[in-house]
């Protein structure tokens, strides 16, 4: 047991948790904004993949990492706008559109990647982000090197969590988002444009999903592979539910999942795992499904989620 | 001025016109990508067509690929008819594949093995689909998210099997042991891969159509989907109908996995389904949830997939074009469906 505890409190292990949690935190916050406005975005898996690809490509061609991040964010926003067009403006069924956006974006990502880079035996890579120690803070024992000697995108994720909470709960726009997600009819009567607010929330969500994709291909793996996202978008969908549509809780859920994932990787590496690692990877999905059943008594999901808003329908 | 007007009914020719419109729009939109890749649009689509439907061998290959999508398409169509939002056909397919592989590896007379494989696969798929349906009926849990998340659970369960107890001890590859030779589905045409499962898929479509359109259960499924309050008022046990729909839908998706194991791969590996479960959603939407429409819709997607490989070899356009076409077709179809809800009316300037 103490051996396990020692493993857990190693600097490298803590740092790994933070790194695994970062793309999940971005993606989860992105999905949360979208869902709080009443739009389920199942396009997340494909949006992350396409953003990872465009960001990687932009960096690979220009040599600039931040240009790559910008391109990834813009890609996410564009695909968010597409999903919003179908779901918020045209009122089409959100889950089917989301699957459509995922199929379309992943197909496009594969297609363009193969077109630009061809079929190479060794996938091209870039010199990705390097860790950026924060003065003073990174000198704190254990916690310092684990938390404050990270990629700049990690710090952005750390700032994004309180910022998301502030925007959602403390700004007029955040109030509009919550209103159109809970009671679009009332929001409309109060003069809030339901469609415009949903557009904005889904596009903001897309930007965050883009950051998640950028992190994967430009900081974590420094290459684009077809499995670069491998279900992390679906994990984010689960984490939003598990985090009860709250920025803090969702980010906490991302951290918890990252802990389980990092633990699983350690156990695999140390060869002491008698439990198949897949069992750990299944956990967030099973927990979420169970949590949904338990939580269903006190409805916490945005009430207008999955419901299109059409002004003329009364 | 033009105005959108709510439509009260849709003419029957829409069932054919809308998918064709969506597919046409898709091919036009995707021709931009072909041009981007520096190939001739007509040449690329031409190669795609000849390589998938141009000769009898090509047609058999397309049909082999269409079979699992006919099953998943039917699974989704049945579920969506009842407004049971089954996004989990992928996981149900995988469960069906695993169960049938398990049964197929037991030595027994061939025909018996095939029947038991189908039964086990259908039962496994149905069991998986029952989870989101039960959660919805008993706990009011959203079926979209729960059925989607179950896909990942089943996928990891499959991986745990083929990287654990099923792992090939000699090669170390994460693949299951093969099923018994006697359990391999018979090939219907010498020199092709056209197997018995393809025919079963083609028969399943009219059977499911009959079930939906002509039987009491089908009537209940339709009413539950169209108007659950009216269904309840009319004495239909909506919860029970949802559970039955889930069983049927899951069983169909499970059969897709059975066909892949018994007729194509004869074992289970991690990439046994290249997303056939999600393709089923595309197929069902293109078919406007009509079981008979599922067959041509699945053949279309299968032809695109089969033809894309040859197109890529001949023109250098990446074969992933087929994935883009699939996504675009779904989105285009959703937009086209707006014509069933609205009509564009010309309104005079002065009213």
From TrEMBL, chain A:
Main location group: membrane
Membrane topology: Multi-pass membrane protein
Pfam families linked: BPD_transp_2
Localization per Swiss-Prot or TrEMBL: Cell membrane
Keyword Cell membrane: yes
Domain of life: Bacteria
Membrane-spanning intervals of the chain: 12-33, 39-58, 65-86, 92-113, 153-170, 190-216, 223-242, 248-267, 279-300
InterPro entries assigned to the protein according to its UniProt record, in alphabetical order: ABC_transp_permease
Protein name, per record: ABC transporter permease
From TrEMBL, chain B:
Compartments, as annotated in UniProt: Cell membrane
Membrane topology label: Multi-pass membrane protein
The entry's keywords: Cell membrane, Membrane, Transmembrane, Transmembrane helix
Residues that span the membrane, as ranges: 12-42, 62-80, 87-106, 112-132, 144-162, 194-213, 276-304, 324-342
Highest taxon in the source lineage: Bacteria
Protein name from the UniProt record: ABC transporter permease
Protein source organism: Mesorhizobium qingshengii
């Amino acid at each position: 047991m103490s051996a396990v505890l020692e493993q857990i409190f190693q600097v490298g292990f803590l740092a790994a948790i933070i790194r695994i949690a970062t793309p999940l935190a971005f993606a989860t916050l992105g999905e949360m904004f979208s869902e709080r406005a009443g739009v389920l975005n199942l396009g997340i898996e494909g949006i992350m993949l396409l953003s990872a690809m465009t960001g990687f490509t932009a960096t690979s061609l220009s040599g600039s990492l931040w240009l790559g991040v910008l391109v990834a964010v813009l890609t996410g926003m564009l695909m968010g706008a597409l999903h919003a067009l179908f779901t918020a403006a045209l009122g089409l069924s959100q889950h089917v559109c989301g699957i459509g956006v995922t199929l379309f974006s992943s197909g496009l990502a594969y297609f363009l990647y193969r077109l630009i880079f061809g079929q190479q035996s060794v996938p091209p890579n870039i010199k990705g982000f390097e860790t950026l120690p924060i003065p003073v803070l990174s000198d704190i024992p254990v916690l310092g090197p684990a938390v404050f000697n990270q990629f700049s995108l990690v710090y952005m994720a750390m700032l994004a969590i309180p910022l998301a909470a502030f925007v959602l709960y403390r700004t007029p726009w955040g109030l509009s988002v919550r209103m159109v997600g809970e009671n679009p009819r009332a929001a409309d009567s109060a003069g809030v444009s339901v469609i415009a607010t949903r557009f904005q929330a889904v596009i903001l969500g897309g930007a965050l999903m883009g950051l998640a994709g950028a992190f994967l291909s430009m900081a974590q793996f420094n290459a684009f592979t077809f499995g670069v996202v491998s279900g992390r978008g679906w994990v984010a969908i689960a984490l939003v539910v598990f985090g009860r549509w709250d920025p803090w809780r969702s980010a906490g859920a991302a951290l918890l999942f990252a802990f389980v994932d990092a633990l699983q990787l350690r156990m695999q590496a140390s060869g002491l795992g008698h439990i198949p690692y897949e069992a750990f990877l299944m956990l967030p999905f099973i927990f979420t499904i169970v949590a949904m059943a338990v939580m269903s008594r006190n409805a916490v999901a945005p009430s207008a989620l999955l419901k299109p808003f059409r002004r003329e329908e009364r | 001025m033009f105005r959108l007007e709510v439509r009260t009914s849709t003419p029957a020719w829409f069932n054919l016109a809308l998918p064709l419109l969506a597919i046409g729009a898709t091919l036009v939109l995707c021709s931009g990508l072909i041009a981007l890749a520096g190939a001739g649009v007509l040449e690329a689509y031409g190669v795609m067509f000849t390589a998938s439907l141009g000769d009898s061998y090509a047609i058999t290959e397309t049909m082999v690929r269409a079979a699992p999508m006919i099953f998943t398409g039917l699974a989704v169509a049945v579920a969506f008819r009842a407004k049971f939002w089954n996004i989990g056909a992928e996981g149900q397919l995988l469960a069906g594949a695993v169960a049938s592989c398990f049964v197929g590896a037991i030595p027994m007379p061939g025909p018996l093995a095939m029947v038991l494989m189908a039964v086990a696969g259908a039962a496994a798929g149905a069991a998986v689909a029952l989870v989101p349906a039960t959660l919805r009926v008993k706990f009011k849990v959203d079926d979209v998210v729960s059925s989607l998340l179950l896909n990942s659970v089943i996928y990891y369960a499959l991986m745990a099997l083929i990287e654990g107890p099923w792992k090939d001890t000699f090669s170390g590859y994460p693949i299951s042991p093969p099923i018994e030779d006697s359990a391999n589905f018979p090939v219907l045409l010498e020199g092709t891969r056209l197997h018995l499962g393809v025919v079963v898929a083609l028969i399943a479509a009219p059977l499911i159509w009959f079930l939906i359109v002509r039987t009491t259960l089908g009537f209940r499924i339709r009413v539950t989907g169209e108007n659950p309050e009216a269904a309840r008022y009319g004495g239909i046990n909506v919860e029970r109908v949802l559970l039955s729909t889930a069983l049927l839908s899951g069983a169909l998706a499970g059969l897709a996995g059975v066909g892949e194991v018994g007729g194509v791969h004869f074992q289970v590996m991690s990439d046994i389904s290249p997303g056939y479960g999600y393709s089923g959603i595309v197929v069902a939407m293109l078919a406007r949830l009509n079981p008979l429409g599922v067959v041509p819709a699945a053949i279309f997607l299968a032809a695109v997939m089969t033809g894309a490989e040859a197109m890529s070899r001949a023109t250098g356009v990446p074969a992933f074009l087929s994935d883009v076409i699939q996504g675009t077709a779904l989105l285009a179809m959703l937009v086209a469906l707006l014509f069933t809800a609205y009509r564009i009316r010309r309104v005079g300037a002065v009213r």
